[in-house]
Amino acid sequence: MKFHLRVDDVDAWVARAEEAGATVLRHPKLEFFGERTALVADPFGYSWFLATPVEEVSPQEMQRRWQAALEGEA
Fold first, then answer.
1. Domain ranges within the chain, ordered by starting residue
2. Hey, which bits of 18-70 come out as E strands?
3. What's the Cα-to-Cα distance from 66 to each of 4, 50, 72, rounded to whole Å?
4. pTM of the predicted protein model
């Protein structure tokens, strides 16, 4: 099972989760849709997407960034 949780500081939450025994599956990174995200797995078998909003991105800009990433420009 996977959960998505918005947090105030994704980097701090990932560090705290790792200290508590979680495995970092994807380290924090800035995504094209304006969130800094990470993925951790807890010792009980659950996966957690952790996200911190960083910027408001319009649908048009999000599409432009997605297309650029697909074309290897991002």
1. 2-70
2. 23-30, 35-41, 47-53
3. 21, 20, 10
4. 0.84
Cβ neighbours for 1, distance < 8 A, ≥ 6 positions apart:
45, 46, 47
Identify whether the C-beta of residue 28 lies closer than 8 Å to the C-beta of residue 14.
Answer: yes
What CATH architecture does domain 2-70 belong to?
Answer: 2-Layer Sandwich (3.30)
| Distance, CA of 6 to CA of 70 (rounded, Å) | 26
The model's pLDDT over 16-65, given as tens digits with 9 standing for 90+, comes to 999 999 999 999 999 999 999 999 999 999 999 999 999 999 999 999 99
**pLDDT class of 74 with cuts at 50, 70, 90:** low
Question: How many other CB atoms sit within 10 Å of the CB of residue 50?
Answer: 24
